[in-house]
Every structure is written in C-alpha cells, then in structure tokens.
Amino acid sequence: MQKTPGKGTLKHTMVSLQDILQAQTLLQGIAVRTPLFEWTPPSATRKLFLKLENQQPIGAFKLRGAYNKVASLTADERRRGVISYSSGNHAQGVAYAARALGVKAIIVMPGNAPQNKLEATAALGAEIVLVGPGSEERRLRAEQLAAAHGYLIVPPFNDEKIIAGQGTVGLEILEDLPTVETVLVPVGGGGLISGVAAALKLSHPLPGQKKIKVIGVEPELAGDAQASLRAGHIVSFPAEKVSQTLADGLRTQSIGAINFEHIRAYVDDIITVTEDEIREATRLLAATGKTIAEPSGAVAPAAFLFHAHQLPDTRVNVAVISGGNIDPALLQSLRDTSAVPEKSPPMS
C-alpha cells in the first residue's frame, strides 16, 4: 500500500444537491426508478431493505452516472467520440448512453473481465480495447488513446457529473423510505458512495431528525478506500492483490481524488468483508430472481449479515445492490453449494 502522489491533497469541486436533482430530471425515462425490497423477515428487529439497481436496463447503477456525463457533453465533444475504462458495468453504462445519444464509444477493459460483461458491452455497439488486469493500466491506456484521437474521457468514478448521476440512487432511497437510518454502499472507485452520501447528507436531516449514517463496504482484498479514510490520504493497493477478489466490479486499486473529498465529507465509515462472506451473500441473494446480485453487488448485504457489530445499531437499514450481472457459471456453482462461512448470518 502506498500514498498516491498528488492525490487527495487538493480541494475539488463538491457536488451539490442541485447537481443531483438536475441529474434526476435528466435521467427520467432513461434510468429505472428501482424499488426497495424488504429482505429481512417482518419480525426482524433490524430491518434490511435492498435497493435493487440490478433492475436497470444494463443490470447495474452505472447507467445513471454514465448517461448524466455523456448527455452533458457539447455537440463538438460528442462528435469526437468518448472513451472510458472499466471492468464491466461502467463499460455497459457508457456504451448504452453513447448509443442512445448517437456517440461513438471506445471502452478499455481488462482481459480478465467476465465474459458476459465483455459480450454485453460489445452488443451495445462499443469498440473494446483489452489490456491487463490493473485498473491503473486501463486508465493510462484510455488516456493515451484519448490524446492520440481526440476522444472525450468518461471516467468511471472520478468526475462530478458521474457522482451526481449516481447520487440519484440516494434521492430515491430517501423518497421511498424517509425513516431510513443507515445506508450500506459498495465501494470500488468511490463514485456510487460519493453520490449517495452527498444526496443523503445534503437532503437530511430535517429539523429534529437524526442524521442518516452512510457506511461503505468493500472486499478485504481491495480495501483501499478504508485504508485511505483511515490514513487521511489516498492509498493504492497493488493490482495483483485487488484482482484476486471475486467482486470484479470493485477491483480498483485506488479511489478517485474527487471521490476521496466526498467520502471524507459525507461517509461515516468503511468496513471490509471477506471472500467467503461475499460468496455466501451472493448465494443467499440468488435464491430469488428479483434479488440476484453479482459479487460486487452483494458486499453491502454481506456487511449486514456478518458485521453487525461494526455497523450502527439502527432499525431501518438499506443495502444497495449495485448490479446483477453475475457470470452464469458462478451463479450455477453457488446454487449447487450450501457451504457457508463460519459465522452464520443473523436474519432475525
């Protein structure tokens, strides 16, 4: 782990509540207003509702930020085409937005990305450039191609328009469940938690109401956001380590500088979950078609199931299911096994 030079030291533009509200208006008719699903039994003293972003047209929340960014481009920027870098879901978000807006899209993806995500991105009309597994490697390749061809970069998380788009998830949670006390959010590069936390903290509290707690969740193997929050500066993890997590959408080596500012301002804590816990949460969610989650989308419920002692002692909780684009072979293997971690999940 190392401090990322030049990152986390400068103040960046913070996304406002108005920015997120504008994104919400723009996304009407594009992104689905996804439901909250009460996952815990009615008798449970600690309730968990799932924010089902697996029901987006691309199967993940990434459409929100990607469309908000691409739609904000000038006519000249759209003519030049866009380029992005992603392990899968942001790739599909950018490809979907670009196709809807008539823009050429090039996506740099790791060769070890799940085949279903590679195929889905190509099916949306994007040109794919494959590189190695490191998140920094794909970012640098995208920047090289942008410089050579004049493409406009659509970052996966380190961008105010991306953050504002993802923040619409937070607005919907608050509108549909005003009594929510704690929201658990997956953390990769930090775009989703930046937006959700900003939306919740800037909308809340109303006079006399308690502040909503926002807790980030990431794999132990890719716990760079937690390390960064603890250290007070951006910490980078090696590609060899983060590439080992089953949660392929969270294999970023470091959070973005803009995201770090939002996390420091609005996020209450970040906790990590083990690979066994991610696997078991994914298996439990797969029991019902409505709640199927890819491993990256299962980390927040995994925290609720296995790390209650690290979470606020709140009655009304929400976990964001960030995506449902699970590899079919993995889904089948999870359904075929009943193996569980040493700690059994407390669902009551």
**Biggest sheet layout:** 6 strands, mixed
State the order of secondary-structure elements, H for helix, E for strand.
EHEEHHEHEHEHEHEHEHEHHEHHEH
By DSSP (H or I, 4+ residues per run), the number of helices equals: 14
Shape call: globular
Specify the CATH architecture of the largest domain: 3-Layer(aba) Sandwich
Based on secondary structure, the structural category is: alpha/beta
Overall helicity: 40-55%
The average pLDDT is 92
Task: Report the count of strand segments.
Answer: 12
Rg, rounded, reads 19 Å
**What name is given to the CATH topology of the largest domain?**
Rossmann fold
Strand order of the largest sheet: 2-3-12-8-9-11
What is the oligomer described by this structure? single chain
Low-confidence stretches: 1-10, 339-344
Number of domains: 2
CATH class (first level) name of the largest domain: Alpha Beta
What is the rounded distance between the termini?
Answer: 38 Å
Task: Please give the structural blueprint.
Blueprint: E1 2-3, H1 17-26, E2 36-38, E3 47-52, H2 62-71, H3 75-80, E4 82-85, H4 89-101, E5 105-110, H5 115-123, E6 127-131, H6 135-149, E7 152-153, H7 160-176, E8 182-186, H8 191-203, E9 213-219, H9 224-231, E10 235-236, H10 239-242, H11 257-266, E11 269-273, H12 275-285, H13 295-306, E12 316-321, H14 328-335
Parallel strand pairs: 3-12, 4-5, 4-7, 5-6, 8-9, 8-12, 9-11
Antiparallel strand pairs: 1-10, 2-3
Helix pairs in contact: 1-7, 2-4, 2-7, 4-5, 7-8, 8-11, 12-13
